[in-house]
Amino acid sequence: MEQATAYAEVSLGALSHNLEAARRKSGHGKVIPVVKANAYGHGAVAVARHLAAQGVPKLGVAFTREAVELRESGITIPILIFFDRDSTDAWFDYNLTPVVFDMKTAKRISSEASRRNRQINVHIKVDTGMGRVGLDMTRARDEIARMATLRGIRLEGLMSHFAEADLQDKDFAEYQLKSFSTLVRNLKHRGLRFDCCHMANSAAVLTMPGACFTMVRPGIMLYGYGCRERESLQPVMSIKSRIVFLKKVPAGTSISYSRTFITKRKSVIATIPAGYADGFDRRLSNQGHVLINGKRAPVAGRVCMDTVMVDVTDVPGVNYESEVVILGRQGQEQVTADELAERTGTIPYEVLTSVGQRISRIYRTSPP
Domain of 140? Predict the structure, then answer.
């Protein structure tokens, strides 16, 4: 079989460390890990198996097809579906927990539950200011009360989502928190209580202890990124490769498409078999770095679909056996998803979820 040209090392030890940080910060230890988007690029099945073995009560995904993949891989714990409304059969067939954000969906679930003579748990989503999905707050109390009368539906959870809990200015986040808290109290007064109330994403877990309610719903912090106050978190993924070609070139040699890099001296150029099809962002052309022999090697020229060239003139001892670190630590140097995001004008979430499918994932029990 062809040897992988680039691969990701995923540290299950670091994942466990970050999960414990979320449990500790929540104050109650009840964590719903978010494993959508292939567990933020880390590999949903392996990550979900590990988290389930760590005793988490539930998992969260964006779409039903993600939950079905986990079920078919043997994951049996409850799985929340955040953004689907048309997969009723699958929710019953695979024992999933839909998040409901309109009355029409609730009635359709009730009808199917009656037809199957079954009961299904649902979580109700309210929109406190994110502006994405959720019941309108002006009608939420009455609509939830009506949902509670529907046959076959058990209102297990109530949830919302912060729009900017990661900002230092918490005014809007506090407004959302107050709105949600008020709704929870009002529903209690009407005799409606929920086993699970959850609103806190990663940033709120770390910076807003009053938002943790009875469960928390972290995503990016489990993978070691995304929050200002993350000193205790460990990046879970490293991406490594090898050198596929080395050459010495004279000054004045052009490198890669459009000749945007011209050597100014005698240089040594290494070709790395990973490109933008693998998640090595094209915006890193002429400004990114990889690590080789503990040194930073700058990207030379345009990033290609399958390869990238780097200038290793100032890196001693480079050869075809030298390990290349695209993301992660080598010696005293480190390339983080935060750095890559800053250089490409995006966020660490996109850096991690863009890691391509042909990058094989290797799972380690030790930190990366």
Answer: 58-214
